[in-house]
Each structure stands twice: as C-alpha cells, then as structure tokens.
Design brief:
This protein has 575 residues and is an alpha/beta fold. 35% of the residues lie in helices and 13% in strands. The protein is globular, with a radius of gyration of 24 Å. The two termini are 35 Å apart. The structure holds FE2/S2 (inorganic) cluster.
Length: 575
C-alpha cells in the first residue's frame, strides 16, 4: 500500500497547521510539554489509548509497553501522545465491568474525536477492554490498531498447572465438598497469577483478543504472545511503527471490518471454544461498523466449526502452551477453509497472507480436525417460550446427558436470595432440578454480571454432583463451565418469561433442537403476567441512570441505543 495522504491533509493539521490565535495556543502548549515544532509538525499524531491502572493487574506491564509503542511511533516518523482511559479491571470493578463497557467505548471515541489525533494504538486485553476499545474505534473510524495485553504465564501449584478462573471454580467446588484443605487453597491463591497479562485460559480476554486478531485489528500473531515474553515488547514497538504507516495509507477500521471479517472472528471464537461473552460483544461491535449481526449467526457458524483448541475450560492446556504450539496463526491456517482469507488486516495484507507460513508445533494443543474436542456446536443459540429472543449455551462445556433434560425449577429471585438459600439442607433439590436465577440481566442486576455459573448446592456437591442445568439472564465467565443457559432475553427485570417461572415448574432443555421451554399453560402464564409487578429502576441519577435508559438487551449486544450504527458525527469546530 502506498501513501494516500499529504501532511497538510492530516486531521491534526486543523489544530497545528494554522498560525492564528488558536494555533498559537496549540503550539505554545505543545512547547510547554517540551516539544519543538519539528517534533510534530507535518507528522501523524498517534494517540496511545492506554487502559493501564494500578488496579488492573492484567495491564500491569502497560506503562512499559506504552513506551515501547512510543519508540515505534517515533522511529516511523510519528508523534505519540499517551492518553489514559478507563481500566475496567475485571476482578475488582463492581457490580461488573460490563456496566462500564459502553462508557470506555464512549471515552475512546470522544478522546479520538476531541483531540488532534490522526491514528491510534488501542492497548487492552482484560475482558471488556477489548470490545470497548474496538467499539469506540469503529465508531470514530480513524486509523486504529489494537495491541493485545497478552496472556499471563501458566499458573502453578506444586506439580499442577493452574488456569485462571477455571481452576478457581473447580477447586472452590472441591473445597465446599470438603475435598481440599485450607492450606492447599492458599497455595492455589499464591500460584495462579504469576506474571503480568490477562487470564490465560480461553476466557473472555483470550477469546476477544483472538477475535480482534482474526478480524484484522492486530499484527499477525499478536494475540497469542504471553505478556511477559520479550516478543511482546517487540510486538508493541512494531505496532507503533505500523500505525504511522496506516495513517499515511488512510487504512481505517471500517475498511477491514466487514461481514466477512466478523464471520472470521466468530468462526475463530468457536474453534477456540471461546467465551459466550463474545456473543454479546461481537453483536455490539459489528453494529458499530454498520453490520447487522444477530446472535443466530453464531449458531449457523457453530454447525460447521470444529473446536480444535485444547485449552481450558473446554480442553486441557493454557495460553502459554498454545503460543508454543504455534498460536492463533497456526490454528487459523488449519481451519482456513472456513475463513474468508481475502479479508484485509491492519498490516495491509490479507488474513490468508498473514497465516500462510504458520505451522503447528504441538498437536496435543492444536488438535487435528479428526481429533476435534467437538466436531461442531461448541456454542448453541436456544429459543422457546422461556427465551423468545434467545439464550445461549456452551454444550462443549456441559455434561452430555444434561443437554436433553427436563426438570423441575428451583427459583431464586436474585443473587442474594440464591446466596442465602442455595446451601440450605432443606432445599428440595436433586441433580435433576433446574436452578433458575432471576434479575441477573442488563437492567436487573444491573450490568449483566458473570453470575451465570450458578453454584451447585453443597449437599449435591457432597454427593459427587458437579453439573446441573442452570438458567439465568446473566452472563458467565469464559473460564466457567457447566450446563448453564445464559443471556435469556428478554430479561426477567423487564418482564421476560423468566420472571414468571415458579418453584416446581417443569422446564425442558433440548439443545439438539435448540429449544428452551417452560411447560406451563398459556392461560397460567397469562395469569402470572397479569400479577407481575414491574420493579422500580435501580438508579435515580448518575451514570447508572443513563445506562438504564439506553442499554439494549443481551441479544442486541447491550450497547447504548444512541451509540449503534454509523450515522455521521460532526468533527469538532476549532475556534
Ligand atoms: Fe483481567 Fe481475567 S481478570 S482478563
């Protein structure tokens, strides 16, 4: 690709190209920062949108990485400006980072719009940061490249590898069942997170950074490099060099994010056994690019996509093993026949070019197609009278006999109700029961937290039960597993049918036929609906009030309605 822009056509020229009174302010204040005119005039101004924060452990290397990106920008003749943005630290932010995903997307878009920026490097990785940054960049549509945080190193306790999240759920259940000691539990705590970087199972972070790479938003191979590896630092510098070229070439997100590249990303998620959270994020993200994606596309593509990444929670290994096995490029080359290889990417080459020379080095980690963990349907979209607008399940992560199951409901009105009663020895629950959680959705929780892997009652754990059918309008961590039906839409808080379920109702889950049915007569449901009372809104003021006014339901991506689509937004006037 050759340059299509002249220096006086740079967007930043509107700030720096004039010698009037406003231009004086821009020049004098840039001088105040220690820069001469030669440092920036006629050069692409690159915003390094950095989601570093002391509270985000997954991004603890980002101050150093920002310097490495800057080095690359300077080498390529650009002018880097680091701009901090909301960190969205998954473990610490309550009630859930999902409440704030759209806030970071707005911040990203408006940072880029309101300042003299020609292109940007987006630094993210911890769960919601990736979709948020990409959504903002797609809406602003300036040249943009994503620098993924990279997974942390594999966890370790004695001779056992430990995976983020997945092994927490697993060993917490064992602890509740009385099978491991307090001393072992503390040993896990000290060994599970050993380095900078995001969760190193196939959780939402690895899922979304891999989706970003498959969509064309990163340099080839970037998403698989462990954060602590020196190759990650070199990738950061290369990302800085590349964004300067992208500005001159005027290569923008909507030039390469197309219906085909979105399909590539979804196919990638399915082949990885990726997080169900990707369903919500990809719908929101695609719509920011003007692509009318629906959740049903996941189901369509799942019917032909094998799950070939042997990574927890669906498989055995961790992201560090995946990197040594050849990483995402190698996996994508294996499933190349399911991808649109002519899709463009940020480096100016097609996806097909970028993966052409990739090799698999470990066939236990990246499985051959004939040894796939499941040959298809690693994720399924369900519908029925309990989820008229859809729900999702990850069949590959559930005990097989539960995928066709009818059982009686045990209903919890909200999380606190569940926490108070789930371990009550008198709870009339068996492995055949269907546990239902209400008010875990976008408005009800609020923020649709990752509550969807509802706990197995302690008395059943003690009997050896490790999976049951569980249903909610919440999300589930990508590191979780089990026969959990998630994202039920519309949610119970707005009067979706989930709000009408009562203890003892029969519920039928039929994954093969994609059905989720509440076996209660229409007359009875009408009677319950008439008696249902709309709960009061969760917020009277503040960001929460804005959120509840505009957030869409799970099947629509949980974006704010006024942020969807590609209607033009004016450039700021400069006076
Ligand atoms: Fe940051 Fe899991 S806590 S990715």
């Amino acid at each position: 690709m050759t340059a299509v822009k002249r220096p006086d056509e740079l967007r930043s020229h509107r700030w720096f190209g004039e010698s009037d009174m406003r231009g004086f302010g821009h020049h004098s204040r840039t001088a105040q920062m220690g820069y001469s005119r030669e440092d920036y005039l006629g050069k692409p101004v690159i915003a390094i949108v950095n989601t570093w924060s002391d509270i985000n452990a997954c991004h603890s290397h980002f101050r150093q990485r920002a310097d490495e990106v800057k080095r690359g920008v300077l080498q390529a003749g650009g002018f880097p400006l680091e701009m901090p943005a909301l960190a969205l630290a998954e473990v610490f932010q309550k009630p859930t980072t999902m409440l704030y995903r759209n806030l970071l997307a707005m911040e990203t878009e408006e940072l880029l719009r309101s300042y003299p920026v020609d292109g940007c490097v987006l630094m993210g990785g911890c769960d919601k940061t990736t979709p948020a940054l990409l959504m903002g960049a797609l809406s602003m549509n300036l040249p943009a490249i994503f620098m993924p945080a990279g997974p942390m190193l594999s966890g370790r306790f004695r001779d056992q590898p430990l995976g983020s999240g997945s092994d927490v759920w697993k060993y917490w259940a064992e602890k509740r069942a009385g099978k491991i000691s307090e001393e072992q539990w503390l040993g896990f705590e000290q060994g599970i997170a050993r380095s900078p970087g995001h969760c190193m199972t196939m959780g939402t972070a690895s899922t979304m950074t891999s989706a970003a790479e498959a969509m064309g938003f990163t340099l080839p191979g970037a998403a698989s490099i462990p954060a602590a590896d020196s190759r990650h630092a070199r990738m950061a510098a290369e990302t800085g060099r590349r964004i300067v070229e992208m500005v001159w070439q005027d290569l923008k997100p909507r030039d390469f994010v197309t219906a085909n590249s979105i399909d590539n990303a979804i196919t990638t998620v399915l082949s990885l056994g990726g997080s169900t959270n990707a369903v919500v994020h990809m719908v929101a993200l695609a719509r920011r690019g003007g692509i009318p994606l629906t959740i049903d596309r996941f189901d369509e593509l799942a019917r032909r996509t094998p799950l070939v990444a042997n990574i927890r929670p669906a498989g055995k290994f961790l992201m560090e093993d995946f990197f040594y096995a050849g990483g995402l490029r190698a996996l994508l080359r294996d499933i190349g026949d399911l991808l649109s290889l002519d899709a463009m990417t940020v480096n100016g080459h097609t996806l097909g070019d970028n993966i052409a020379t990739a090799e698999v080095y470990d066939r236990e980690v990246i499985l051959a197609r004939n040894r796939a963990l499941v040959t298809k349907d690693s994720l399924a979209v369900l519908r029925g009278n309990l989820a008229p607008n859809g729900a999702v399940i990850k069949p590959a992560a559930a005990e097989a006999d539960l995928l066709q199951h009818t059982g009686r409901a045990i209903v919890f009105a909200d999380y606190n109700d569940m926490a108070a009663r789930i371990d009550d020895p008198a709870l009339p629950v068996t492995r055949d029961s269907v546990i239902v959680l209400q008010n875990g959705g976008p408005l009800g929780a609020p923020g649709m937290p990752e509550w969807g892997q509802l706990p197995i009652p302690k008395k059943l754990l003690e009997q050896g039960v490790r999976d049951m059918v569980r249903i909610s309008d919440a999300r589930m961590s990508g590191t979780s597993y089990g026969a959990c039906v998630l994202h039920v839409a519309p949610e119970s808080f707005v009067g979706g049918p989930l709000a009408l379920v009562q203890d003892g109702d029969l519920i039928e889950l039929d994954v093969a036929n994609r059905r989720l049915e509440l076996k209660v007569s229409d007359d009875e449901l009408a009677r319950r609906r008439a008696a249902w009372q709309k709960p009061p809104p969760r917020y009277e003021r503040g960001f929460g009030a804005l959120y509840q006014m505009h957030v869409t339901q799970a099947d629509q991506g949980c974006d704010f309605d006024f942020l969807e689509g590609i209607a033009p937004t004016p450039e700021p006037e400069i006076h």
